[in-house]
């Protein structure tokens, strides 16, 4: 039996932010990061909350949120006892909020209403039952329906200030979510339809928003594509591209979307080398109006290079070759045990994962 569900209610389109005024709340806690707080974006968003509501802000979130940060957030939420929690930021802020609420509920706190407002077009975390937390040097993917926000508010104006490099990285994360959901061994007609739509938007609009961050129609479409891809993968799961990226990101702290973008062609080639696993790529290419899987692969590589993203991990310049080699077997082990691996279309051995890492390092 298959299942398809969407836990969050969506608020989107022009003036979506006005939805905030209709929320019933007396004490709001906003979970965000230092940049969004200092840039005035948090204040701008809060102007739309009902007048009279008390607002507290926790702005300590850092990229790739750690378990320690989550524990600090749990203590704080028990002190504050808000009746509305807003996660405002990229995937890191939304994931941190999910984990804070999850662990606070486990400790007996009654769950407040949880609204997620993404400020990047990337993770789709506003609608997923995933949260990625860093424990030591390991990124752990938590997967549980209890993590999903109750509401997701998409207002592309909050993504306007995202600089080109982060636009590129987060946009390639959307592409990776949609591709992995489409070829996943849990894909269904419903998740395929969403993945194809997200991919069409990414191929068309990501180069536009990369070149011109003020292209607001394209920004709006990318915000929707991110959410649509999130709905696809929360139902179909992801695959080893994400498993490999999680293990690498935990050790070498490179942006999640960039790691996905670098790894993707290597993972696609690995799958496409066997006809049974090549088949979904062929089908997907035809749905996208391309001649076949080889053209799809080439289009991914071309897009990546138009966005100024490196072809291999060595070219990042921040991952030393001997350090990489020292960690490669541990990373392959972590990737094999990652919660995204069971939905990968092709079964993988530890050695396959080591080989993929080495290929992606050298190019
Ligand atoms: N939960 C999920 O379903 C899911 C899926 C994929 C990835 N993730 C996780 O999400 C995290 C990555 O999230 P992300 O890619 O959104 O990046 P991020 O949240 O780490 O943010 C990256 C940077 O962008 C900045 N930023 C955010 N919004 C901005 C704006 N409007 N203007 C200018 N700068 C802005 C942030 O301050 C930060 O410095 C990783 O930890 C990844 O593992 C989660
Ligand atoms: Zn991702």
Automatic annotation (TrEMBL):
Keywords: NAD, Oxidoreductase
Location of the Fe-containing alcohol dehydrogenase-like C-terminal domain: 167-361
Superkingdom of this protein's organism: Bacteria
Xref: SUPFAM superfamilies: Dehydroquinate synthase-like (SSF56796)
Ranges of residues in domain Alcohol dehydrogenase iron-type/glycerol dehydrogenase GldA: 8-155
UniProt GO MF annotations: alcohol dehydrogenase (NAD+) activity; metal ion binding
Family in the record: Belongs to the iron-containing alcohol dehydrogenase family.
PANTHER family: ALCOHOL DEHYDROGENASE, ALCOHOL DEHYDROGENASE 4
The protein's name: Alcohol dehydrogenase, class IV
Lineage: Bacteria, Bacillati, Actinomycetota, Coriobacteriia, Coriobacteriales
């Amino acid at each position: 039996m298959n299942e398809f569900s969407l836990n969050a209610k969506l608020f989107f389109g022009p003036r979506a932010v006005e939805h905030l005024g209709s929320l019933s709340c007396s004490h709001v806690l906003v979970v965000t990061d230092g940049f969004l707080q200092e840039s005035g974006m948090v204040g701008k968003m809060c102007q739309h909350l009902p007048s009279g509501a008390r607002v507290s802000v926790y702005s300590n979130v850092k990229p790739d949120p750690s378990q320690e940060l989550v524990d600090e957030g749990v203590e704080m939420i028990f002190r504050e006892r808000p009746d509305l929690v807003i996660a405002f930021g990229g995937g890191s802020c939304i994931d941190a909020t999910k984990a804070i609420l999850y662990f606070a509920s486990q400790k007996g706190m009654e769950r407040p209403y949880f609204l997620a407002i993404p400020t990047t077009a990337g993770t789709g975390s506003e609608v997923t039952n995933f949260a990625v937390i860093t424990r030591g040097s390991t990124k752990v993917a938590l997967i549980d329906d209890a993590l999903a926000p109750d509401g997701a508010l998409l207002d592309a104006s909050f993504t306007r200030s995202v600089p080109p490099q982060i636009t590129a990285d987060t946009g390639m994360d959307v592409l990776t979510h949609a591709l992995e959901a489409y070829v996943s061994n849990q894909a269904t007609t419903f998740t395929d339809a969403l993945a194809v739509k997200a991919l069409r938007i990414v191929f068309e609009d990501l180069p536009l928003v990369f070149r011109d961050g003020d292209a607001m129609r394209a920004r709006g479409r990318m915000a929707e594509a991110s959410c649509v891809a999130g709905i696809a993968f929360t139902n179909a799961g992801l695959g080893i591209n994400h498993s490999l990226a999680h293990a690498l990101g935990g050790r070498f702290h490179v942006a999640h979307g960039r790691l996905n973008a670098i790894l993707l062609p290597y993972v696609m080639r690995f799958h496409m080398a066997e006809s049974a696993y090549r088949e979904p790529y062929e089908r997907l290419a035809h749905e996208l109006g391309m001649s076949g899987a080889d053209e799809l692969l080439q289009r991914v590589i071309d897009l990546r290079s138009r966005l100024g993203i490196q072809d291999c991990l060595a070219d990042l310049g921040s991952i030393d070759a001997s350090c990489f080699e020292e960690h490669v077997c541990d990373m392959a082990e972590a990737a094999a045990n990652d919660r995204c691996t069971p939905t990968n279309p092709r079964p993988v051995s530890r050695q396959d994962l080591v080989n993929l890492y080495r290929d992606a390092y050298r190019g």
